[in-house]
Amino acid sequence: MAEKLIGTDIAPQDLVAKITGRARYAEDFRADGMVFTKLLLSPMPHARVRGVDATRALAMPGVIDILRADEVRQVEGRPAEASLTDEPLYEGQPILAIAAETEEQAAAAIEAIEVDFEPLPFVLDPLDSLRPNGPNAYTGGNRFGGGEFSELKWTDADFEEIEAGRMPNGEAAVEWTKGDIDAAFSESDLVLEESIVHQSLTHHPMEPRSSMMYWENGKLHAFVSTQSAQRTKYAIAGMLNIDPEDVILVAEYCGGGFGSKISGNTHMEVPAVFSRKIGRPVMLRITRYEENYIGRARPGFQSWLKMGFMADGTCNAIDLYIVQESGPFGAGDFNTAGMIADLVYTPQNMRFRGIAMYCNTPPKAAQRGPGGAQIVIMMEPILEKAARELGLDRLEVHLKNAPDADVGFGPRNSTLTSVFAKEALEKGAEIFDWAGKQELSGRREGSKVTGIGIGLSPYTAGSRGYDGLMVIRPDGKLYVHQGLGNLGTHSIMDTARPAAEILNLNWDQVELVWGDSSRGMPRSSVQAGSQTTHAHSRANHAAGMDARAKVLEVAARTLGGSPSDYDMDNGRVFRRGGGASMTFAQVAERAIELGGKYDGHELPDNIHATTVPAANILAGQGLMGVARDNYGGSGGVYTWVAGFALVELDEETGVVDIKEYVGVTDCGTVLHPRSLSAQVLGGSVQGMGQAMTQRWVFDPKWGVPFANRLYTARPPGILDVPLDMKADAVGIPDPQTPVGAKGIGEPPVGAGGAAVTSAVADALGGRCLCRTPLTPDIILAELEGLDKPFHLEQHIG
Amino acid sequence: MAIIRDMIPAFELVQPTTVEDALAAMARYGEGGWVLAGGLDSYDWFKDRIKRPEAVIDLGGINELKGISNGQDGLEIGAMTTLTEIVRHERVRSEYILLADAAEHVATPQIRNQGTLGGNISQDTRCWYYRSGWACYRAGGNTCYAAAPQAMNREHAIMGTSRCVAVSPSDTAPALVALDAKMIVRGRRSSKVHDAEDFFIGPATDITRMTVLESGDLLTQINIPGEWANAHFYYEKVRDRGSWDFQLVSVAAAFKTSGNTIDEARIVVNGVAPFPVRLDAVERLVTGVTADEALATEAGEIAIQGSRPLKYNEYKEPMMRNLVRRAVRSVA
Amino acid sequence: MAEAESAGLLETKYSRRKFIKSVIAVGATASSAGYFIGSSGLGAQAVPGTVERLITLTVNGQQRRVDVLPNETLAMTLRYRLNLTGTKLGCDRAECGACTVLIDGVNQYGCSMLTHQVRGSSITTIEGLENPDTGELSLVQQAVLEEGGFQCAFCAPGFIMSMTAMVNENPNPTRAEAAHALSGNLCRCGDYDKILNCAMRAAELARSV
Amino acid sequence: MGRWLDFESNPWGQEVLQGVSLELMYLAIGLAVLFVAGHWFWYRSRGFSEHEEPADVQGSVAGLPERIVRHTLPSRIFHWTMAASMLVLLITAFVPLLGLEFAWVTIHWIAGAVLILTIIYHVIHSIVWQDFWSMMSMGAKDFREGLGHFRHLLSSKSPEPEKPGKYPFDHRMYHWGIVVTSLAAIVTGVFMTLRIKTPFWEPNAYYPLVDQAVSGLNELGEPAITLQPGAATGLVFVLHGIAGVLLILMVASHIYFAIRPDKRWFTWSMIRGWIDREHYLAHFDPDKWSVGDGTIQENPPGGAIADSTVSAPRVDD
Fold this sequence. Notes:
By secondary structure, chain A is an alpha+beta fold. Chain A is built from 22 helices and 32 strands. In chain A, a hairpin with a 2-residue loop joins strand 24 and strand 25. Chain B is an alpha+beta fold. Helix content of chain B is 28%, strand content 20%. Chain B has a 5-stranded antiparallel β-sheet. Chain B is globular and about 60 Å long.
């Protein structure tokens, strides 16, 4: 029998290339005659370029040409970043580019350019922009709607409320309510009110977003670091207004994106346009310094929360107001945060208000669990504070408020395909030995105090309706063509397993084809929203079923009888109960002879228009399995992770040492256990960095960031997380998907971060600092009773 | 003139193999020469194109500057000895664990494998205003941006400041001051010995330099006197992450004890001033006294007298107080 | 005069070491006279001792002739002149470890050393670990394969070089010692737990061979 | 321009004024030395007498005390205190730049504070108790008197100039020079000190009056865009530098003339407070500087002195 693939540990096929240095990321590609381009970044947080004098620069040795903002796409009608601009909206925004034979020459040329800037008013902190007659990020105002800018200011009364630590009633951009919170709060046995700040933090994937491009015979060859391959090809085509089939995207490996490279990046347009202009390959090598500016960041929140609890720990009311630092071009995190709060705490009565404020800071984008990670990191310690004040076991209060499958959340009372959050909490508590560790909570040893905490974090984990495309070639092997990006989650390999199992093939009889759009990529989801495993295990399942049906039909048409008389195993199709059989290689040859739907010359009518050209490339190469995921299903697809952490806090230095961590997930069927735990623990580590060390720092006078390198941004290192962490899965399949697998990428971030913020609050005897990151200075200042040098400001330190 | 980062400007590279050749090259280039030890501090300046030497004088090829040998009664450490060598050196570990401990807390293994003791103590401050190339006092300008009322100064100084509020970033500096080390500095015609404490100068004396070294001076050797061998040592460094980061506050202390009575003490704190701060008042307090919790607490209080924090670094007062307390308490 | 800034706690650093550069009266004349005549520029003679550009590097056991600028870092030479793109540039500032290479067996950041500084050393990069003839993976690479280490793997080359140095130095590390040995390598996917499994497995293989 | 003034880029990369360059200091020191040496040899070459000028008595000595008071005790105390703080200021400003390093900042601004106090005292004292206009007046005849004196100095052929009042023209010109430069140095110095930490205030690099940078929110809460941020501070440093450098010249020449042998009798008046009758008559016009008005003079041991105050009744300080 073919080996069981789903649920077993198989090293991804690209691992040998990754560990021998053969794996080529965007900046590793070279082309004959390749030149380099360098960007001139704005030195000011907001300015207008009145003039550029590049005469001296263009006369320098090796310098080829300059690229200006009017030569690239400027998005009209809404605030959106262009790859080059003459009105920079954040310090570090690229203004123009210079191409030269060598990078040194390009850099020297950039320095020789005289730019006449007119500084404009700028704002860094959303609350400053909301303050009566405070500055706005755009000259037109601080809000955008209906095609134009406007100005929205809160009143002095609102700011008096804020100063007093109470929730303001300023005008919101988004507001929805459920039930009656006033009535609910009056019935609550305990009401907690807090103002909470979550910092902004740059994605900082390990690989900066370099890209290299050249034009040949009218086609653009693009070497880009991107999370999603097929969709990036169409993004590039859209940017340049050219036929997508004229874009050949090469994206074999991506050094991480975490939401900042969902379909390539804004500034890949520079080498694309520049190489067309000068007729030579252009490499744009992005440095870590530039990555801090254009590499996108998670939006910070300044928020006010009011939570009502009954005596038994049930949360019966939530009033939540979020002000979001949206950078110059906006972000949607705060909306998601409101829905996730409703989902995690099922308060029945809830009011959510939110407003996204433009700021002259590096642009925001979804960062692994956008909105969801922030809100659970902020609110889980409040839930635990309530449990402690009500004298209840914190695990019980988590369990009591966690939803079941029948949950309805958010303004539209959305439903979910499956919810096994409680099972995840219980299994996690068991592995972590939550009960046994109760007496450790608050235990003191010298100046070290132990704290334990729980973080429950859900996030979207699936989508439907994408296409699978695979070919059994005359060599008898199954070639699965993936349009997915190879961003490090291993989903690009693991989502092919359903097809292999349907065709009863061993893994060594399966080849993955990815990373080069000219080799045929079906319509794929973006690798974001943790949807890939769900979306493409279904798509490949559907295409696998199509291939299986065609193999059986080819066998029947060749060896007689009807398809149902046949079965297959180990690369052979044979009549049940023995008798005639064919190898997959012969089936492939036969399929080519039969043509039509068998070898892909005829395609099903419901596949996506962008899959057709890919299928056409592969037509006639063997038996083609191609199909759209039509399995349907109702309600959102969400995955849950329950995180448990034990920390040791040194009361004399404020240093927190995360000693233990357990993460258990309800993500449906586990395709690849080791990669599953890599996602659970990897996401949790990012959450721990978010909770403990990473942040943004801006000089308010000059609007310039200082956490602009890895050393100052401070992502977590190997010594900042527990030595050995445990991850596990509940493993109950999602009922609405044939394979039962849901995605896993994003939920762990909130779980890891919230478990740590809860554990630190526990170690502080229940005090919630309601601010991240929890660096030694903030903790020590709290313990020593120093007065805080900040209230709700963002970007401090 | 526009600004661009991350591209080292051109320079000539001179690789002398003797101290004489190095000094000659340094004289030849004068202000245009840059002495390169491990390079971890220098490359930041070059890659940001803020320092653009005409010639870089690489000391890597001068073997006489490397290695640890026995001095008359202590140790003689070549300035170009890597930090890893110090961390692993048998005699440093047995008799001067304070130095090995401090060296092991520097940044990361790769940096310790390449960074040198001489480089670690003569590196420039890491104030992010100054290192961004801003024309502050330390860069010869007329403003301290970090001391402004709303400036971001969480990692800046709370004492010993004069206009400039940056801190000394070195991890081995406090240990060397606590060990009363001597720095041998060779000029073209002269060779001077500095007490570790005087090697580091504050902004009040010369705001543009962290140490006494000027162009034409070459730090060749660091001598650890035998006087403090096998003393009771205490080192602790508080920082945000487990590796890479410079200290928020660190303490290095050496005690000569009989039982738990402190006969003599040298206690040094770094990360709180533009130079490693030797706590004379605390040393006087604890000398000849039996160490107990009360003494430790009082030592902590005295240590932070006279500190004047900025907006975001008041926490350094309790942090420093507690570190000194823990150092004294370790004798009890 | 009490030093107002530090309220007497800290005597300022007064160094008599250097008396006045030029004696107040006479010196000023000389320097100002010099001022009038204009500084007599030293003739820029040819300067002995600067490096030539064409050098031989020992990379992965091979002699490679290569033209290297004086200000060129090893990472750039490897990536852009020797096309050994396995060594990655994550930060170019000794802050991430993706560029870790072995210099005479010691793991260092390739981005923070000048190529001319390692002319005489043996340089090992990720491409140099497998057996050049048989293509057999090194013990560390095998361990990583067995444990399915790394996710996006942009940090893998750097980590594997640090693991190789660690195993050579301490084939019997505790898990904490392994973490310390690898604490100069950053992984943004947060795969630390699995990376430590690889390191421990690599040490195990090294001990058994 | 570039040689004297330093430009620097502010954090936004805009070129702004920074301060004066070191060359300006070396130039000033050089000029001071050249002036002193030049005057010394010129004076010798003109054959003027080396030692103290003889007092050829013309006017009648009747009614004149033997010792004519020129500077009262309070004004002498003021002068020497101001001189001390000025010297400390110059030393702490320029000696570190010449190479001898020491903690100069605090001494400098404390000396500055002392200087301010002495000047406040002096302004009050000169207005109330001294003949303010005798020093400050700068009318057309004053210039003629000065021109005549100057022309006589250059060539002995020119006619003997008329005798000046209490303060000869060159003294008054010098006094005006000192007033302008030291006030400039003080005003800018105060702004510079307000920007650094002292026991009395916290450092403030963006002291509101000096530097109006774009700060998103300025003090009035609306966006403020004025001249390039940092430029105003640069201007303050430049003025302070120029004033300081001029003070090198002025103080150096002042001290030089004070110690010249032929002027020693004059210098003593700032120490003892009086000049002898002969020199008074030789060098001053009694009508312009009358002394013998019969009021009771304080009598230091060894002879009567007449105070120079003319108008207001004498009040003991």
